[in-house]
Amino acid sequence: MNSSKPTSKIRFTFDKGVTIPSLIFIVGICIFSVLFPVEIKAVLDVIKNFIFVNLNWVYVWCVTIFVIFLVFLMFSKYGKIRLGTNDSKPEHSFFSWISMLFAAGMGIGLMYFSVAEPMQHYSTDAFSESHIISRAKNAQLYTFFHWGIHAWAIYGLVGLCLAYFTYRYRLPLSLRSCLYPLLKDRIKGKWGDVIDIFALCSTFFGITTTLGFGVVQINSGLETMKILPETGFTYQILIVLVLVSIAVFSATSGVNKGVKILSNINVVIVIILLLFVLFLGPTVYLIGSFTYGLGNYINNFFDLTFNTHVYEEKTLSWFYNWTILYWAWWISWSPFVGLFIAKISKGRSIREFIAAVLIIPTLFNFIWMSVFGNSAIWFDFNVANGALSALVSDPDALMFRFLEYLPLSKVLSFIVLAIIIIFFVTSADSGMLVMDSISSKNSSKSPKIQMVFWGILLATLALMLLNAGGLQALQTMTLITALPFAVIMILFVVSLMKALVIDYRYYEKGLSVSTVPWSGEFWKERLKKIVSFKTKESVKTFMDDQVLPAFTELKEEFLLNGIAVEINYLPDDLKIHLEIHHDVVNNFIYGVMGQKRIVSEYMVDDDNLPDLDSNVTYFPKTYFGDSREGYDVQYFTKNELISDVLKHYDRFLKIVAEESNEMFISSDNNSL
């Protein structure tokens, strides 16, 4: 008799309404870019130039609104709201959290542009009439501007909206959720699918182009260091295959393993490299220039923010090709980076989230760009006789050529290469996690083979575009899509503000005016309770003698009024609650649970204070279905407990009756 083991069939979690249209669009655009790279790029360049020249003010205003809005939230009363329930805690340490958002957000770009961008601003014809010192100051100022608060405000807004609606409203980790207050249940239909399709395509294009340019820089570095003989396509295939394989392994390990470990390692190596260059380079000059540059940035912050260069015709072309291009690039990357930041930010308060996302990466970027960019300018002027500024058209090799002017240049080149490789991997693995999340509507049961699929697709299309010269066309396409998404992000601002107002009112709403305070009727019994401390057994006795009879009487009276009530009692867990089920709105829950409290040693030792055998005591504490903070009810009698439940039920009915609260009291929470 033959026996066969049942085979487990892989269950893909792809959402067809999002994944299939996205793949058709992604593959179609990439094939066109491979077959007709010059023609496609020419057409897209015309569209991009029209947008940048005629609609650049849209980018300027949108980015300005994002910055002002986030700063307002950080200092407002809404800043204390948590990205999750009121008692939720962060899942990752602060260091790991910052490391991961930094690695996903700008890692590989910092390595590519830290020398190239300041040198290009320093050498550009737009500022050629300025004195050499003014050009050096402008180079640092505009680099700070492009990599500072404005860039992180774009990422931060999308990340905040996603984290808030995902962990506070318990909606899917999806861009469609950010428009819930405006679209409500329509986010579950075609409108939501369109938004997710856009996010998936934008994420794929952004990662593909960045990884393509990253491969070229890695290849250039390996050639400069004599590890590879040339920068041929064959070597780029090998680089992509090795690094994407590592990225797939990291992504399938999950955020808490592969992504976190690599991000933590890279931040440590980055800091070591930064200190090497700082102390091996013109140290005093770098510290002084950073100090001046920071003050210069603060002094010119509003001028930089609103400057459209409309009165400076000579710098207009530079403005389009740098500032506007950067705003478009950060916006086009924000779905990917925002989704990843949201994924790792559960439990943070809004104030903590904004402060960390805006200030810490910005300050590090400033230090990094000052050390590398100002060192390159100093060497170019004092040592290299213009040799570095002559290489601005070859940014792939510029970083490694710059390192040749420092002591231990070989060691530094190896460190730089290692950092670029790890940033390459962390961008790819976090991108795979995000794309899988979008395509499966944030399913927690996605098979690992889906990560492998995205890794193979990324590697294949990036190499095809790299070989055919189609990366520039794809990059231009990505920049064009930033314009409609900038408008969508303005809707995110409106949506988030609307939700926060309702959220704050909901949790700050006091008890009903019909609340009757304690009377002095049972003051002797209460005094005895005040000067004694409860054990687990006494809390259980309180539940048996007071809470359960109170809930039972309430249940009988509710039934007489046509309202079905359920009582759930778990004596071993010291937990009991009364629940009224609803189909349309959230269930009403009033519960009491045993809560442990640690008291000070002074209270244990003081003879004039209540007797205690240890510093651990227990008390009965209320809890509610909407995560509001409960309170001690150990002094309540049965009738006072009944009264307290009715007060909260009265509050519940008043909130439900308000039309503006209907989206916050959705019945979706009942199934979670």
Give a short overview:
By secondary structure, the protein is mainly α. The chain has helices at residues 16-35, 37-54, 56-75, 94-105, 107-113, 116-123, 132-147, 149-167, 180-183, 190-224, 233-253, 255-280, 283-299, 301-306, 313-343, 350-382, 395-403, 409-439, 449-468, 471-508, 523-530, 536-560, 601-605, 638-657; strands at 566-570, 575-580, 588-598, 616-624.
Provide key terms for this protein.
672 residues, mainly alpha, Amino acid/polyamine transporter I, four-stranded antiparallel sheet, 24 helices, 67% helix, BCCT_transptr
Structure description:
The protein has 672 residues and is mainly alpha-helical. The protein folds into two domains: 16-504, Amino acid/polyamine transporter I (Up-down Bundle); 523-671, no CATH class. Helix content is 67%, strand content 5%. The protein has 24 helices and four strands. A four-stranded antiparallel beta sheet has the order 1-2-3-4. Helix 4 (94-105) crosses helix 18 (409-439), helix 8 crosses helix 20 (471-508) and helix 22 (536-560) crosses helix 24 (638-657). The longest helix has 38 residues, at 471-508.
